[in-house]
Amino acid sequence: MADYQNIANTARRDWMGLLARAPDDALIELWGKVGTPPSFDWLRSPEVGGVMVRGRTGGTGAPFNLGEMTVTRCSLVLKDGTVGHGYVQGRSKRKAEAAALIDALMQTDAAEEIRASVITPLSQQMQDARTARAAKAAATKVEFFTLVRGED
């Protein structure tokens, strides 16, 4: 049972991270194609705030404050009792609501449909953008070769 719970937590962490980092327009467009959203009640309506981003030197050093970042969060409950949370970068209340609904639906029987229509295409779009950005950066890479002179 513990292994299943760890797998479920890892999967949820992955899709929530994807939703948090996704471009607003891409997420909203894919969510709009799903159809009529299910009815829900707010546990916490979308609210904009700031969080302190912390870092560690070398990944293991002493923590330091890197700066602040704006986030929007909300929580909702579907009529069947499933709770969804949305934490997204920026000020988009609409994106936070969509992320919370997707999170809730990914915990129900609709998970495969949502994965196929939102999560997988969104993941592919973001991977394509990373690949294009890496290719553009690689095109500007300069290789320096040094010839060793035979001086004694």
Descriptive tags:
single chain, 152 residues, alpha+beta, 3-stranded antiparallel beta sheet, elongated
Q: Using DSSP, what is the number of strands?
A: 3
> Strand share of the residues?
25-35%
Largest sheet entry: 3 strands, antiparallel
Count of separate structural domains: 1
Determine the fraction of residues in helical runs and give it as a percent range.
40-55%
N-C termini distance: 70 Å
User: Segments where pLDDT lies below 50 for 5+ residues?
Assistant: none
Tell me the series of helices and strands, N- to C-terminal: HHEEEHH
Q: How many DSSP H or I helices?
A: 4
Q: What is the average of the pLDDT values?
A: 89
Q: C-alpha Rg, in Å?
A: 21 Å
Please give the order of strands in the largest beta sheet.
Answer: 1-2-3
Structural class: alpha+beta
How does the overall form come out from the CA principal axes?
elongated
